[in-house]
Amino acid sequence: MLTSKKLWLGVLVSALFLVLFLFGIDFPDTGAALKSANYVYVIPAVAVYFGSLVFRALRWQYILRNLRLIPLRRLYAATVVGYMANNVLPVRLGEVAKAYYLGQREKVSATSTLATVGIERIYDGITLMFVLLVIWPFLPLEELFKNDSGDLMWVRAGIGALLVAVFFGAIVTFVAVAFRPELGRRLTDIIVFFVPGRCKGQVGNLAELFIGGLESLNSPRKLLGIFVLSIPVWIMESLMYYLITFSFDLDVPFSLALAVTATSNLVGAIPAAPGNVGTFEWATKVTLVSFGHNAEASVAYAATLHLTLWLPVVIAGIIYMWTQHRSLTELTRIRPAAVGADGDPVGPVPLERKGEE
C-alpha cells in the first residue's frame, strides 16, 4: 500500500494545499486565536455530528431495502467504521471498508453494497450543490463581490455566476441521466474522445458505473426519497460547523456555515491524503476569507473543525471494530473494487477468517 502511486499523489496534493492554506498568515496571531478559543462548543458539535451519521445510516437503509432490510444500528456501525477508515487509510478505502464490514456482518453481496455506497456519494454531491443554489441569495455577497469602496468586483461576480450555472447544470444532468441512461453514455463517448489513450478504458468504466448507479434510481419516488433523506444529513453537519464558529467568535450566519460545509466537502473530490488533509482546510479558509473573515481566525477554525470531524469518529470506529473482533490491519488488506472488462465492479475481496464461512 505504501508504494501505491495514488497514495503518494494524494500526499503530494495534500502537501501543496497545506502550503496554500498556511501561506501568508501570521503564525503568532493564529496561535493566539487557538489559545483564546472557547472549546466548550466542540462538545455539542461532536454530538450533532454523530446525529448526522444517524441520518446517513437511515438513508443507506432506504437505498439497501431492495437487497435486505438491515437494522439501523448495524448500518450506523458500518457508517462509522467507513468514516474512520476514510480518515486513516489512503485512496478512499473507507468506502470499500464500509461495504466489506457490512457484507461480512450481514452476509450480503459486497459488490451490491459497494454500489449503494457509490449512490450515497452521488447524492451527497447533488445535495451539496443544491444547498449552494438555495443559500446563494442569503449569503453576505457584498463581502464577496464588492471591495472596500463598495465597487463591484466583476471578476469575482463573473466567477460566482459561472459556478452557479455549473452547479445547476450538474443537477439537471444527474436527473436527466437517471431517466435517460443513453444520454449519459453519449456524454461519456464525447468525454472519452478527449481523454489520453491509456486512460480511455478507466474513464469509460467509471462513467458506466456512475450511470448504472443513477439508472437504478430511475423512479421519481426513489430519487425524491433519497434526496429528502440527504437534506438532514447536511443540515446537521452544517450545524456542527456553525457551533464551532462560536469557539472563535466568528460572526458567521448559518447560510455561510452551509456554504463552508458545501465547499469543504465538494473539494474532497480532489485526490488527497487520508481524511482530505490540506484540501479541507484550504477550502474552509478560502470560503471564510472570501466573505471578509480574518485569515488567522479562519485558519484556527479550519484546523479545529477538521480535528473535531476526524478524531471522534476514528475513536468510535475503532471501538466498533474492536467489539466485532476486527482490526485496522484487516482493513488495509482489502483490495479496492476492481472494474472488469464489462464495466462491472468486482467488489472488495472478502478475507477468510477462522470460524467464518
Task: Based on the model shown, name its key terms.
mainly alpha, 15 helices, 0% strand, disordered C terminus
Written description of the protein model:
By secondary structure, the protein is mainly alpha-helical. The chain has one domain (5-332). 71% of the residues lie in helices and 0% in strands. It is built from 15 helices and no strands. It has helices at residues 5-22, 27-36, 42-64, 72-88, 93-106, 110-135, 141-145, 154-179, 181-193, 200-215, 220-245, 254-266, 279-290, 295-323, 328-332. Helix 3 (42-64) crosses helix 6, helix 6 (110-135) packs across helix 10 and helix 12 (254-266) runs antiparallel to helix 13 (279-290). The chain is globular, with a radius of gyration of 21 Å. The two termini are 27 Å apart. The model is unreliable at 337-357 (pLDDT under 50).
